[in-house]
Amino acid sequence: MANEKIMGLASIGVKVTVGAKELKQHTSIGDMSNEKDTLDATTMLDEVEKGIDGLIKSGDFEIQGLYNGAEGGDYTVLKALEGTVVPIVVTTPDGITHSCTGIPNVSISSVGVNAVINYSAKFKLQSKWVDGTASA
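Above: the chain sequence. Below: its structure as tokens.
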């Protein structure tokens, strides 16, 4: 196996759990980033701008999915969580978890002729992303 080629992972099987509900109709998720602000540390003697890491930007995280307004549908579940801080857990196909907390704001995306209706859930993040270990 020394010559085994390592490939990336497909998005098939990405699990998303918000609160206690595992979503079933998600079609895309946003970046799981702990990007930091850069604080300007340049002095009048420097020829090149210098910076140091500041706080992690709170930012937003977005989940998009197929609209289903029925009881138990992802849209209905997420809509009921609006305004509250909820845990978000993304599990990649290799079993690694990525988690944080956020406050959801849910809307129906624009709708066109002969098109699927989608929802968008934008979360104002309240904590940084933490990578976990592979689940058993």
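Helices lie at 74-80.
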